[in-house]
What does this fold into?
Amino acid sequence: MFSNSSIRLGAALLALTAASSCGFKHKKFENPIVADTEQPDKILFDKAVKDIEKGRYEIARITLNTLLNTYESSEFSAKAKLAVADAWYREGGTRGYSQAEAEYKDFILFYPAMEEAAESQKRICDIHIKQMEKPDRDPNQALRAEQECKQVLIQFPNSRFAPEAEQTLRNIQEVIAESEYRVGEFYRSRGSYNAAANRLGGVADQYPLFSKADTSLWGEAQSFNRLGPAFRSQEADSLVRIVHDYPLSEWVDEAKARLTELEVRIPEADQLAAARMQFDLDNRVRPGTLSRSFGFMRRGPDTWTAAKNGAPQMNAPKQNIPPLVPAAGATAGFQGDVTVAPVTNPQALEQNPDARPANQQPQQPAPAKPKP
It folds into this structure.
């Protein structure tokens, strides 16, 4: 049997050996945190995610900001910044969408190479889509949505969100074109054919995939017809486009008949355009009866008539000049040279009679009559 002193001596020797081995042989861990515990930044991130899922958006944002401010080099920094934007997005409302857009733009600025940057840009587009009005109302949100969806295709053309953004852009442009088409038809119904031709022609030029682009061209041709014989060539151009670019249009037969009257050669139909129109007709899903009955209660527009194929318009809209407006550079009015000289007499405007309109020139006193 060992005595108590021997046991205590052995234990002391073992402790000394262990301490010496720990002191002279260091083992480097990949993770400085003990294996059986979680990282504090991950704990904060997981807690924030649960709060977002439960609808506690304000608490989630406080937790995420704590993570970003406390652990600046954390591997969860990018995810936390994106989660802040998602919390605002899910909260919704004017304030929530505005803050979410700002946060998403910051994320794209700081992490442009991450896959989530394309998703953030798509979310910005969705923010404005959710706030879009019907075609007969304010088009501002539709124009913003068009601009932001174009950025998805420009900045991230190879992302997995590009095909969805392309179809979304077709839907948005359908709404914008419908708004412009209604304005043009309003002018035509009021006899303002000059303005009608300008609007309706602009719709077909800017948005050729618009479901009523052929009807817009027909309205443009009718407006040119009412403006007189001087615009017969413009009328013929609109009719030719109907026959060639929209061969399945309901206006093709009438367009051909009018071209025959104008003695203009009838063009051949574009087969690719015919195939595109047929594809759109075959793939349209008409809203159900319930949706049509209560559609007036919905804030957003219907986009079921939008094109399902073809490249959406990526160029900025150009300003069309109404037919009766003189072209730039037309010689009319003042002709001569305009010169610039320093002002030498500050009182010239008041003293010189021809420097003011005739009705504002000073009256010269009448000459005194000679005395007899």
Q: What stands out?
A: The longest helix spans residues 162-189. The chain has a mean pLDDT of 84. Residues 112-190 form one domain.
